[in-house]
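Backbone-to-sequence.
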């Protein structure tokens, strides 16, 4: 059995059986291994159980090499889930592009890079056009190999992946390619990049602001192949740092770690960062650079825990709001409406504002936030005293009194927002 087929069989068996120990032996440290192990932990299974791809025809591309480490590219026809819904309609023809490496004569071949692309009715799945040359071996045998690039690229090959990172970043910033883009328009390159325009940098989603930063990560490794015409194709990694920043309140990671995924511990967070690597290749044609493949491997999740005072403040404020809303509903249904209903509502509401004011005064705050906390406490106590005054008096409150309380409540809401904003810095 050749190396490509043996690796395919071993890798798919480990994936299907959720055998993470075997995966660590089959893949070298890097995006593919880290991302696969992360996915196994996040979803509880290494692969959609409805998807068991089979190996179809494959093509091996081997550059001429004279020393270790050695590498080659295996392009493999199979199927893949192109949507996240698990239905048969999302399983489509797929071409894997796997790079296998061997660091020394005594070490096994390992999977170091994996990307791929889909096929459909309009664009049938097909192999990339790699150049081949012949080499004469001992004994008169003739073998083929992938020669070195011979056509000068439009930009240095070391810039291929950094330019792809800039290209994707532009879609995050402005929703389209850079004005001076070196990448060709249309086709897979821009269609793939369009997905990054869906959630722009700075957009707000469920109470947190999202920002993304793309950058090439040459430390992971880069591999060069030659296309027909002598054009270089460079394969490697673009790192994607996705930062969620709390805006209206801390982000909650629940006890089951399902809100944001493991290994982020349960708790309340000011920021959550997901680091992912995108395995991708870049080549060029007469119309410019173009992108082949974009497999994303999430592999690291970190967060900044919210201070205790912020969590307690938010909890107490939410309790206050829920209780006051309940008292409003009780007042509206109170019969017969009159002095008794007003006094009951005022006394119960006063108690809640008094509890909140006492809580605000007891928590420890950073020096920069103490003034805002003091203002919030003062205003809240003013509201407490206003409701207490209504509960102690026999007459119904005047429109002026009600208006004054409403004004203080608006002030308290603004002060609460200001204090929360300060605590989230």
């Amino acid at each position: 059995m050749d190396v490509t087929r043996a690796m395919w069989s071993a890798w798919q068996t480990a994936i299907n059986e959720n055998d993470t120990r075997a995966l660590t032996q089959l893949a070298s440290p890097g995006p593919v291994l880290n991302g696969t192990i992360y996915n196994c932990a996040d979803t509880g299974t290494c692969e959609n159980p409805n998807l068991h791809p089979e190996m179809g025809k494959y093509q091996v591309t081997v550059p001429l090499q004279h020393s270790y480490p050695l590498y080659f590219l295996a392009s493999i026809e199979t199927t893949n889930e192109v949507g996240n819904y698990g239905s048969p309609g999302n399983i489509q023809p797929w071409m894997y592009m796997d790079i296998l490496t061997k660091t020394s004569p005594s070490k096994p071949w390992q999977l170091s890079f994996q990307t791929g692309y889909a096929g459909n009715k309009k664009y049938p799945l097909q192999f990339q056009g790699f150049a081949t040359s012949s080499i004469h071996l001992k004994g008169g045998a003739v073998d083929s190999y992938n020669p070195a690039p011979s056509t000068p690229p439009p930009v240095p090959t070391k810039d291929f992946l950094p330019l792809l990172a800039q290209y994707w970043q532009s879609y995050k910033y402005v929703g389209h390619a850079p004005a001076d883009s070196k990448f060709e328009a249309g086709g897979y390159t821009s269609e793939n990049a369009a997905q990054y325009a869906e959630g722009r940098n700075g957009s707000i989603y469920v109470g947190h602001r999202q920002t993304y930063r793309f950058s090439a990560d040459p430390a992971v490794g880069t591999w060069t192949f030659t296309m027909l015409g002598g054009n270089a194709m460079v394969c490697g990694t673009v790192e994607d740092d996705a930062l969620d920043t709390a805006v209206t309140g801390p982000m909650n990671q629940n006890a089951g770690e399902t809100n944001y995924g493991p290994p982020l511990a349960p708790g309340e967070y000011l920021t959550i960062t997901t680091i992912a690597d995108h395995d991708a290749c870049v080549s060029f044609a007469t119309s410019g650079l173009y992108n082949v493949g974009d497999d994303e491997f999430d592999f690291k999740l970190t967060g900044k825990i919210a201070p205790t005072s912020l969590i307690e403040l938010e909890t107490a404020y939410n309790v206050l709001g829920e209780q006051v809303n309940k008292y409003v509903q009780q007042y509206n249904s109170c019969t017969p409406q009159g002095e008794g209903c007003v006094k009951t509502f005022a006394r119960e509401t006063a108690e809640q504002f008094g509890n909140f004011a006492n809580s605000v005064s007891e928590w420890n705050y950073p020096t920069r936030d103490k003034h805002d906390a003091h203002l919030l406490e003062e205003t809240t106590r003013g509201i407490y005293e206003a409701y207490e005054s209504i509960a102690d008096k026999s007459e119904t409150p005047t429109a002026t009194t009600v208006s004054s309380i409403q004004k203080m409540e608006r002030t308290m809401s603004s002060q609460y927002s200001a204090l929360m904003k300060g605590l989230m810095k």
